């Protein structure tokens, strides 16, 4: 079976200007949203208390909010979590009540207020100091990862590819963050893990494409860089397609069956796979193309350059 | 001939998958309910304890499936939880006080498998239920305490040297000493500089002040020591909880992470972690009659205390010294190779102790262990009431006037001396600790997470399986074989590596690897198709396909691996869990997708005359 039957080379790079504008607009929108809406940081980053309670019947959120309000917890965020019987309550960090007491206290006022049987399913109490440290570490992890990738790709391929792939990664991460900011989805550590996975996925895609471009530059002597990139993208297109499909299949399974705890994780990755696939074509390749050749440059020069590079890489 | 694998390669693939399957297999056996009995405060469970437990269980006809002594703990396994609970109650009553009796789940790995190191994967808290605490050590306190020590040291040093000073005061990260004249200042400077090489001294001749500051190095040492010491203390306390696989680990500069899988009673865990244990030195009351005291006539100034074997001793109520003056304690042997405990006090403690012991040479002194244990009772505000628990751990005769460092003999065996030193150290928290983060996952939520994660893996797998089968037909079967082998290898490696813990994001990582692992095969298969389209022969196409795809797969996976390894090194908690499975998954999938499928493809299609390929 074959999903794509391509006889002719698809002229991907023809649309690269439009795609670039599109990408830049999206990135600006994401940046704007990050500035205006910010990220809805989860407990891991802000500090505070999270209590997950299981009710024996469908929970009445309004009633719960009222109960919390009237007991002095007016900052409580009450949400359903996964099912109509599971509720998470998030509280900002407080000085006056000891953490160890808080859970029991809230459980008992809720029991009294709703008259329902409750089970404490999860309680997390995170100090903001730890939150700070985690934010720092998370950011540091990403930065280090990006730099190391840049170095490896520059070493294995060429600096234009390296810049292209890192730019693509930056693009994907920014857009995913933007999505979380626009939709105000909770950004917790699992989402951070997902973003790191998006980096992995996007990178995988970019490298596969770059690899083919490099190969074709060496193989095909006649044809401009734009043409060669188009040929390479067309050749790898069916692979890109299949891999995206299998990954998406798995992610859909995660999204629907993985439970509420990894919902954010699955959402970020689902989105990330789409952007990652798009960016390997229209960001990574387009940037490499844009960096490599200005319009006046002639084709042989580029081929020579590739050849020179190849020689330089040979011991 | 093209596409024939050498025998060693085929054998290697079979061998690797077989080993993977072998080490993955302990996960199939599940867990046995068990009761774990471990000694408290220096007591160790031994063969006698084991016999006692065995006979008690037999007597009450509580059936158990096995009983064993492992690392100073007795582990009794049961067929069902009913017997487990019965046994716990029974043993709790009979062993009481001296041992902790804890419920436990123990892997039911068969002995031969356990013998070759087979263990099931460790599950993170999110999957097993349990508590995790992050405790922060108050480093300011640690430094203030060190400064206090320095103030005392300087004062006594100067006094001993007969150098007159006006005042000794704490400053930021150090001490300021004021003198009356330049001569004293110069004398003190040269003397103190010699004695304290790890401090930086600056003289100010105008204000007649000598400032001593702790170097960065010294500050770092203090912090490091406070952290290490608190970890030791917490480890001791965690052991008392009798948790199966507790984790006590430093995180960063001042935090300690404690993970207690399976613990549901968080209140108890917290109380024990926060519990304050300390040591007091008191004189033994020799004037009054022990017999009278035992009959209830205890003199007002004395108190009747017991040691851990129940032997009574009458001790004075007046405390000579408390444990918070202890800076360090260790065990060694004296000149007659009897075990001894060496104790070092801080300066104020040293002079206090020296005064207290000078008139009591030749008399017995008791070391009393004090612990505040939480009770079931609560006060009006809902705070747990703590009960003071006192126990004599040693009685020793004072040989000479004791100063800053001294030793206690008569601790019995070397092991006991060692434990006593541990307790003394544990009694002296250098810096207070507080819980900054706490996570509790209920057992039901943990079970649910496993269930959901498992479903997602099965669901994702099934979808990918079907897709590959339809899309690549016979080669799809090969890719699916590789996928299955990949999962077995991931589980096998996760079980083998001691530090690897399966968490929910880790499960997500496995699921993701499944999606991405297919990529290597897709790359190869698409290449083969391309080659076929170009009119190459079947054998040529297979050969070229694998060849051409190899460097691409390598590059793509290495870059992802770099990212995963960095995540592991820098990340914590869920990120680490994810990074572990992802890195393992990348490595195993490279093996199964490149080497594994090649072997199968070669075995089925290699070296034959074929006109068409089912791809």
UniProtKB/TrEMBL annotation, chain A:
Transmembrane segment boundaries: 20-36, 138-155, 162-183, 189-209, 241-262, 268-291
Domain Protein export membrane protein SecD/SecF C-terminal residue range list: 112-291
Gene3D superfamilies named among the record's database cross-references: Multidrug efflux transporter AcrB transmembrane domain
KW Transport (keyword) present: yes
Keyword Transmembrane listed: yes
Source organism superkingdom: Bacteria
Compartments in which it is found: Cell membrane
HAMAP family found in the cross-reference section: SecF_B
PANTHER family: PROTEIN TRANSLOCASE SUBUNIT SECF (PTHR30081:SF8), PROTEIN-EXPORT MEMBRANE PROTEIN SEC (PTHR30081)
Family: Belongs to the SecD/SecF family. SecF subfamily.
Name of the protein described by the UniProt record: Protein-export membrane protein SecF
Gene expressing this chain: secF
UniProtKB/TrEMBL annotation, chain B:
Residue ranges crossing the lipid bilayer per the database entry: 452-471, 478-497, 503-525, 546-571, 577-605
This protein's record includes keyword Transport: yes
Residues annotated as domain SecDF P1 head subdomain: 303-431
Keywords: Cell membrane, Membrane, Protein transport, Translocation, Transmembrane, Transmembrane helix, Transport
Pfam families cross-referenced by the UniProt entry: SecD-TM1 (PF13721), SecD_1st (PF21760), SecD_SecF_C (PF02355), SecDF_P1_head (PF22599)
The protein's assembly and partners: Forms a complex with SecF. Part of the essential Sec protein translocation apparatus which comprises SecA, SecYEG and auxiliary proteins SecDF-YajC and YidC.
Family named by the database record: Belongs to the SecD/SecF family. SecD subfamily.
Described function: Part of the Sec protein translocase complex. Interacts with the SecYEG preprotein conducting channel. SecDF uses the proton motive force (PMF) to complete protein translocation after the ATP-dependent function of SecA.
HAMAP family: SecD_B
PANTHER family xref list: PROTEIN TRANSLOCASE SUBUNIT SECD, PROTEIN-EXPORT MEMBRANE PROTEIN SEC
Protein name, UniProt field: Protein translocase subunit SecD
Organism in which the protein naturally occurs: Thalassotalea insulae
């Amino acid at each position: 079976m074959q999903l794509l039957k391509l006889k002719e080379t698809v002229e991907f790079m023809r649309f690269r200007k439009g795609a670039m504008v599109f990408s830049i607009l999206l990135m600006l929108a994401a940046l704007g949203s990050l500035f205006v809406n910010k990220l809805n940081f989860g407990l891991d980053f802000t500090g505070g208390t999270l209590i997950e309670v299981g009710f024996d019947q469908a929970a009445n959120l309004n009633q719960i909010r009222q109960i919390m309000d009237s007991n002095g917890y007016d900052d409580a965020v009450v949400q359903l979590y996964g099912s109509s019987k599971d509720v998470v309550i998030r509280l900002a960090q407080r000085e006056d009540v000891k953490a160890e007491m808080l859970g029991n206290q809230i459980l008992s006022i809720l029991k009294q207020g709703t008259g329902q049987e409750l089970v404490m399913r999860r309680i997390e109490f995170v100090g903001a100091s730890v939150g700070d440290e985690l934010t720092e570490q998370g950011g540091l992890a990403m930065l280090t990862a990006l730099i190391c990738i840049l170095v490896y790709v520059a070493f294995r391929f060429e600096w234009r590819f390296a810049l292209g792939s890192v730019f693509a990664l930056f693009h994907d991460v920014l857009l995913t963050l933007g999505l979380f900011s626009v939709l105000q989805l909770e950004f917790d550590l699992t989402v951070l893990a997902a973003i790191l996975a998006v980096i992995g996925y996007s990178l995988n895609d970019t490298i596969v494409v770059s690899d083919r471009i490099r190969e074709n530059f060496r193989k095909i002597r006649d044809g401009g860089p734009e043409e060669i990139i188009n040929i390479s993208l067309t050749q790898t297109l069916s692979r890109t397609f299949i891999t995206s499909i299998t990954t998406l299949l798995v992610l859909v399974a995660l999204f629907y069956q993985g439970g509420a705890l990894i919902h954010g994780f699955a959402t970020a990755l689902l989105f990330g796979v789409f952007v990652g696939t798009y960016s390997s074509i229209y960001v990574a390749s387009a940037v490499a193309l844009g960096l490599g050749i200005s319009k006046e440059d002639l084709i042989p020069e580029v081929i020579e350059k590739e050849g020179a590079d190849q020689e330089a890489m040979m011991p | 001939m093209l596409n024939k694998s050498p025998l060693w390669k085929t054998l290697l693939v079979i061998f690797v998958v077989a080993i993977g399957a072998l080490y993955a297999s302990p996960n199939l056996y599940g867990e046995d309910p068990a009761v774990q009995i471990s000694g408290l405060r220096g007591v160790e469970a031994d063969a006698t304890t084991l016999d006692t437990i065995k006979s008690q269980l037999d007597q009450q006809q509580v059936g158990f499936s096995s009983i064993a002594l492992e690392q100073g703990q007795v582990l009794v396994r049961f067929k069902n939880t009913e017997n487990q609970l019965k046994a716990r109650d029974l043993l709790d009553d009979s062993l009481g006080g001296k041992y902790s009796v804890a419920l436990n789940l123990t892997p039911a790995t068969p002995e031969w498998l356990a013998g070759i190191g087979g263990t099931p994967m460790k599950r993170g808290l999110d999957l097993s239920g349990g508590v995790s605490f992050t405790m922060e050590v108050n480093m300011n306190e640690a430094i203030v305490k060190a400064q206090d020590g320095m103030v005392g040291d300087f004062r006594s040093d100067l006094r001993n040297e007969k150098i007159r000073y006006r005042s000794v005061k704490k400053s930021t990260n150090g001490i300021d000493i004021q003198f009356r004249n330049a001569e004293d200042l110069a004398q003190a400077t040269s003397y103190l500089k010699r004695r304290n090489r790890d401090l930086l001294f600056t003289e100010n001749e105008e204000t007649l002040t000598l400032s001593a500051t702790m170097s960065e190095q010294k500050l770092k040492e203090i912090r490091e020591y406070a952290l290490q010491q608190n970890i030791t203390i917490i480890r001791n306390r965690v052991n008392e909880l009798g948790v199966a696989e507790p984790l006590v680990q430093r995180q960063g500069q001042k935090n300690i992470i404690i993970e207690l899988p399976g613990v549901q009673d968080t209140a108890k865990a917290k109380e024990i972690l926060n519990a304050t244990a300390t040591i007091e030195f008191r004189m033994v009351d020799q004037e009054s009659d022990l017999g009278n005291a035992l009959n209830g006539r205890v003199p007002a100034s004395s108190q009747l205390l017991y040691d851990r074997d129940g032997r009574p001793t009458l001790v004075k109520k007046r405390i000579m010294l408390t444990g918070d003056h202890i800076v360090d304690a260790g065990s060694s042997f004296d000149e007659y190779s009897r075990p001894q405990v060496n104790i070092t006090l801080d300066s104020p403690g040293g002079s206090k102790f020296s005064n207290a012991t000078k008139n009591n040479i030749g008399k017995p002194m008791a070391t009393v262990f004090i612990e505040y244990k939480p009770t079931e009772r609560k006060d009006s505000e809902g705070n747990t009431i703590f009960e003071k628990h006192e126990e004599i751990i040693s009685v020793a005769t004072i040989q000479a006037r004791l100063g800053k460092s001294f030793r206690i003999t008569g601790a019995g065996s070397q092991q006991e001396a060692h434990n006593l030193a541990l307790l003394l150290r544990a009694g002296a928290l250098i810096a207070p600790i507080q819980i900054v983060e706490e996570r509790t996952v209920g057992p039901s939520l943990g079970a649910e997470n496993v269930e959901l994660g498992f479903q997602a893996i099965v669901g994702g797998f099934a979808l990918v399986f079907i897709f590959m089968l339809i899309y690549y037909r016979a080669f799809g079967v090969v890719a699916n074989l590789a996928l299955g082998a990949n999962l077995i290898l991931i589980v096998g490696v996760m079980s083998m590596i001691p530090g690897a813990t399966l968490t929910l994001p880790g499960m997500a990582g496995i699921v993701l690897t499944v999606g991405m692992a297919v990529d290597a095969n897709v790359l190869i298969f698409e290449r083969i198709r391309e080659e076929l389209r170009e009119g190459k022969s079947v054998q040529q196409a297979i050969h070229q396909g694998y060849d051409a795809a190899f460097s691409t797969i390598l590059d793509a996976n290495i870059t992802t691996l770099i990212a995963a390894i960095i995540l592991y090194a820098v990340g914590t908690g869920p990120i680490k869990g994810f990074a572990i499975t992802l890195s393992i998954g990348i490595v195993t999938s490279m093996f199964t997708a490149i080497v594994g499928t090649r072997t199968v493809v070669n075995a089925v299609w290699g070296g034959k005359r074929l006109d068409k390929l089912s791809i």
